[in-house]
């Protein structure tokens, strides 16, 4: 049966650190619900009620636009090996851009990743675990380097041009403010 916690315990942190993928869910009152898979060793637990994750350049920027209007966020982890567990973190987040004073301190918690564009700083108000007995086993074979290689090839100026062309608005037309907040 599912259990709820008011903070991230050490056993939860250990589980989170062992996962290779997580999923982020956000929405505003007038947008589609967005669920994004994330990887690349981009998640950190900073305390019992605080996590951060590094967001890299992708084809969209829904999460940033949503959080700037409605800070609610859910992060989900699922065990694909070992004991079946699904873990969800519920809370509120804020977007940290390269121009923000917190960027340097938080970015230092990650290995540099080409294409980094935002950090999400989430206050967790509830953690819920549930069984994952219907989740299939998957074997981790390695990281895909395609996005990292693409971002390196683009360089800083190429990434800024890509953001201006592809990451300025969501599929619902909401502004992401990425260019003005990251240059």
From TrEMBL:
SUPFAM superfamilies hit by this protein: FMN-binding split barrel
InterPro entries xref list: Pyridox_Oxase_N, Split_barrel_FMN-bd
Keyword Oxidoreductase appears in the UniProt entry: yes
EC number(s) given by UniProt: 1.-.-.-, 1.4.3.5
GO molecular function terms noted in the UniProt entry: pyridoxamine phosphate oxidase activity
Enzyme class (EC, first level): oxidoreductase
Domain Pyridoxamine 5'-phosphate oxidase N-terminal: 9-128
Alphabetic keyword roster: Oxidoreductase
UniProt protein name: Pyridoxamine 5'-phosphate oxidase family protein
